[in-house]
Design brief:
Order of helices and strands: HHEHHHHE
Number of domains: 1
Distance between the termini: 33 Å
Structural class: mainly alpha
CATH architecture: Orthogonal Bundle
Strand content: under 5%
CATH topology: Cytochrome Bc1 Complex, Chain D, domain 2
Strand order of the largest sheet: 1-2
Shape: globular
Length: about 170
């Protein structure tokens, strides 16, 4: 980098530092309570799953009320909104139908995503019981679990998704 560019960068850094030093109200430390509301990640092993439970029948009621408008009846919406089907379509260079049943490797990812981002117009609005129920309903529609199974923090991590082994494991630092 040229001397001229280094001087310009240094001057900019000095100006920004001076501006921040004169404006102490640009932020505040986050409280543990505020952080906890956003620290809701769920790992593949189920670590972090909250209390609650739901069945496919309960999930159907929630889905029909809060999810069907975007994902279609029984999750068979348009290609980008489809949640069901696509089994056997991933072989080859261009996978055809990526759905929860055909593509996703972990059932816990379904819980994490629904809780964090759905319904689209009101994300993070479902109760834990509703999220477990919707997850159970979607898993049931895909034939991954039975119609009478209950999903909760103990059962969900043990659900074997059809594409669980379709991903290459990533190991940090190896």
């Amino acid at each position: 980098m040229s001397t001229r560019k280094l001087l310009a960068a240094g001057t900019l850094l000095a100006l920004c530092s001076a501006a921040f030093a004169q404006s102490p109200n640009l932020g505040k430390p986050i409280s543990p309570e505020d952080l906890a509301a956003w620290d809701i990640s769920i790992g593949p092993d189920g670590a972090g799953l909250p209390p609650g439970s739901g069945t496919p029948k309960q999930g159907e009621e929630v889905f029909n009320t809060k999810c069907q408008a975007c994902h279609g009846a029984k999750g068979a919406g348009q290609p980008n909104d489809r949640l069901v089907g696509g089994m056997g379509t991933l072989a080859g260079d261009k996978p055809a139908v990526k759905t929860v049943g055909s593509y996703w490797p972990y059932a816990t990812t379904l819980f994490d995503y629904v809780r964090r981002a759905m319904p689209y117009v009101d994300s993070k609005s479902l109760s834990n019981d509703e999220v477990y129920a919707v997850a159970a309903y979607i898993l049931s529609l895909n034939g991954v679990i039975g119609d009478t199974e209950t999903m909760n923090a103990q059962t969900l991590p043990h659900v074997k998704m059809p594409n669980r082994d379709g991903f290459i494991p990533f190991h940090r630092g190896e």
